Amino acid sequence: MAQTQDVVELILQDHRKMEDLFRQMRSVEADRAAALREFSDLLIAHALAEEAKVYPALRRYKNIDDEEVEHGEEEHEEGNKALLELLEVDEVGSEEWDEKLEELVQAVTHHADEEERTILNGARENVAMDRREELGEAFEEERARQLKAGCGDVDNVRRIVTS
What we know:
By secondary structure, this protein is an all-alpha fold. The protein has helices at 7-26, 32-58, 66-87, 95-126, 129-148, 154-162.
């Protein structure tokens, strides 16, 4: 994939990676536990970076709806709760695991779809490319910092969900 600093493209790349990890978590031939660990790190780092670096900046644009941004944050909470429920299932591939995985897929897919249609399209139409690139750099730095800190660890996810 071509290197980009455009925050819209970076977020879309993460969304596509999450979809790929969902496929791996559903596949009996894949290392489902490893895919879940990678997904957990990515989801938490992605959401924290959006909330710290992207959403506050986008709120300043009059053509990007504050309510959509707030709704995006609420959906991050729903995704985090669904992730925690899956992380707390003891047996990968059990009926309970499959059920919790589908709840997670539904929560994250719904959020990604809405975010792409509302917030990201709004950013694409109303935010100059140089500003989107600045936001992309800040997003990548924060996401990398979170990943390095092991943000997707079950104890950290639990802290995020219960705080």
